Fold this sequence. Notes:
44% of the residues lie in helices and 14% in strands. It has helices at 12-26, 42-54, 70-82, 105-133, 155-173, 194-198, 200-209, 218-228; strands at 2-6, 32-37, 57-62, 87-90, 136-140, 179-185, 240-243. The mean pLDDT is 97.
Amino acid sequence: xxxxxxxxxxxxxxxxxxxxxxxxxxxxxxxxxxxxxxxxxxxxxxxxxxxxxxxxxxxxxxxxxxxxxxxxxxxxxxxxxxxxxxxxxxxxxxxxxxxxxxxxxxxxxxxxxxxxxxxxxxxxxxxxxxxxxxxxxxxxxxxxxxxxxxxxxxxxxxxxxxxxxxxxxxxxxxxxxxxxxxxxxxxxxxxxxxxxxxxxxxxxxxxxxxxxxxxxxxxxxxxxxxxxxxxxxxxxxxxxxxxxxxxxxxxxxxxxxxxxxxx
Length: 263
Ligand code: NAP
């Protein structure tokens, strides 16, 4: 399997690279992974070395996805090195908390560029290779793209647009047998959010809000990505899989005075 993963940090992206590699190696395949990061960080170099030692073929590609020329260059490098591409995992994303009233155009543009436009440009560049392989694209959206997340600036709009973009792509690419889906994580403990979970009280309070009884780990999201890239998901396209331990749907459980048994 030849896969390009953006945001291949120790969070969801790096965990996904590790899980995809382990599963491919377990099947006796040599996974080819293009691990993309904004720069060549020690973490992504260590990931490449670790997976390389295990038998995978990993290339590290660097570039700022806010630059519109970068996504096509990453795809071209991966296709060139691997002789094609079977999957793209568009995972890189950023937050920039702010009330909408205080949001400036530069913040809006950067969030939309990284969280939304980069997937568009990756998709356009990868389409010929994915058509040849009848491959798949998975983008990592967010529960915040499925509702209003106040105080998070352009984050909700950027992820809502990402979900919509992938739904349109899924329709336009279905005839080419390319699966396009999004995964929307709930509250996940990753480098993006670790500062929140350093506070034990907040960590406990957050876990208490989730019906499953805990916040999510990168592995919870990586498993869904692996499923969407597997033959088991051949007939799944245009879907947004909320992966949140039941958190978003739990709102009605908190209505004061709701009936607790039939009268
Ligand atoms: P993370 O570890 O910070 O991963 C984000 C990755 O994107 C990092 O590798 C980061 O690189 C990279 N990145 C950021 N800006 C970039 C740019 N301009 N160009 C290229 N790469 C860039 O956080 P994560 O939690 O695993 O997030 C992965 C995805 O899940 C994101 O799309 C995020 O919005 C989404 N998500 C996360 C949560 C959560 O609770 N953690 C919830 C919902 C959705 P650097 O680290 O080097 O900056």
